[in-house]
Amino acid sequence: MSLSMYQASIPVLIRGITNLAAILDKAAAHAAAKNIAPEVLLNARLAPDMFPLVRQVQSVSDTAKGCGARLAGVEVPSFADTETSFAELGERLAKTVAFLQTLTPEQVDGSEERPITLKVRSQEIHFTGQTYLLGFALPNFYFHFTTAYGILRHNGVDIGKADYLGSV
């Protein structure tokens, strides 16, 4: 049996977001236990020219909802980037999962050749659904997820590979 576009995208994105939400819960608990102002972690970066944790999480959300919507041929939901707490980031991730759960296999399957155009800065990038999913959306999703994980691990949050992968 072949792997469908739906199977390769929506459940994968939901699982990653769910794992990231659990990691953020651990980060909030870590900050409280160690008397660290949450803003210290929320604004932490791996390097000065990289986005802080808040923006990394927003990017995970944006990439996931954009991927699902584009593959399904529906409007990408717009979320304001106003989160300033772990609770607000958790709410954003929950809204992202709720949106992805509205997408059906019938909407996504068969999108391998669907033309997808992204406007990035002043240029357009053109993909087919399959090249978008495998060559852009999933790598981008995992880049921001991994960076968020790395920021928190670097700052002493007790997380490991099992947290990143979640339950199998």
Helical fraction equals 55-70%
Radius of gyration over alpha carbons?
16 Å
Q: How do the strands line up in the largest sheet? A: 1-2
Mean of residue pLDDT values: 97
InterPro entries: DinB/YfiT-like, DUF1993
Protein name: DUF1993 domain-containing protein
Pfam family, one: DUF1993
Notes on the protein architecture:
InterPro entries: DinB/YfiT-like, DUF1993. This is DUF1993 domain-containing protein. Pfam families: DUF1993 (PF09351). With 168 residues, the chain is mainly alpha-helical. The protein has one domain: Up-down Bundle (Four Helix Bundle (Hemerythrin (Met), subunit A)). 63% of the residues lie in helices and 7% in strands. The chain is built from 7 helices and 2 strands. It has helices spanning 5-33, 38-42, 53-72, 86-102, 105-108, 129-154, 161-165, and strands at 115-120, 123-128. It has a two-stranded antiparallel sheet. Strand 1 and strand 2 (123-128) form a beta hairpin. Helix 1 (5-33) packs parallel to helix 6 (129-154) and helix 3 (53-72) packs parallel to helix 4 (86-102). It is globular and about 50 Å long.
Brief characterization of the structure:
This protein is 63% helix and 7% strand.
Which structural traits does this protein have?
168 residues, 7 helices, two-stranded antiparallel sheet, Four Helix Bundle (Hemerythrin (Met), subunit A), mainly alpha, single chain
